[in-house]
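Input/output pair, single chain:
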Amino acid sequence: MNRVSTNFEQHIILDEAGDPMILEGAPSIAPALFGLNELRVEYDADTKALWTHMVPQGRPSFTPAMLADFERWQDLIQANFNAGDLHFLVLGSHAPGVFCYGGDLALFRQLILKGDRASLVDYGHRCCRILHRNINTLGLPLLTIGLVQGDALGGGLEALLSFDFIIAEESASFGLPEILFGLFPGMGAHAFLSRQLGSVAAEKLITSGKNLTAREMLALGLVHDVVPDGIGEEAVQAFIEKNARRHAGLLGSRRAIKRSWNLSLAELTEITEIWADTALKLTERDLKLMGRLASKQSRAVEKVREDA
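Output:
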């Protein structure tokens, strides 16, 4: 298991099976939190930070299996931590060169061909519930941090927008490519971006289909810091240590901002239903483009894995 910082070594060791064990100074945490299939979880009792990295088994996207792990992850965090045990929640990815490619395009294509609106809506609603719980920090007084060390596209970017702070490495890229195959991002982009950028700028970004660099995202105010490649985890650790004493003030500020957003789960799920209805209107050409994009992304990841 990769160590995010030397502090982890004071509180987590591996047993004979290679599973993490929490040592003195940490709260009692159910082992299930450290046994998720597609999420690697580590806890730092010194800084009261829970680090999580996506470790997708296949294409780095929000497959049903990945969504199930996120749902379980959130449930276990709520069940195992109280206000004094957890101040920071970090999400990154161990997929080479990728934070997340977003929605499961292969699944979408299959459901669209079958005309299965109910399953499309169910998928979207699950994503929205996960994002809404993250926006509300699982009911705990914690700050959330997204760490981007690669591509964050489609739903991957939407997920990041639900975090309090985003720290990106220099080569990270961001985009909403759905318009390229006749669709739009349906799990939070409009809701988040219209509140942060205004509706005109949000619509322009969503319908452009363009990828943005980390620096361009920083200029928009959507990314909070850009650091050199390879030091993203160090930068997050430094952010946590720097802001430990300011935790209450930052937490209050973020709560005030999100109160002004007035973003309800109902709003998110209603937009998802518009997304599902739009998806069912895609043409054969659109579906071919969707399939090609998914294949291109899969090949790129496989090449990086082979070269590693």
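Residues 1-14 have pLDDT under 50 and may be disordered. Residues 143 and 172 are 22 Å apart (CA to CA).
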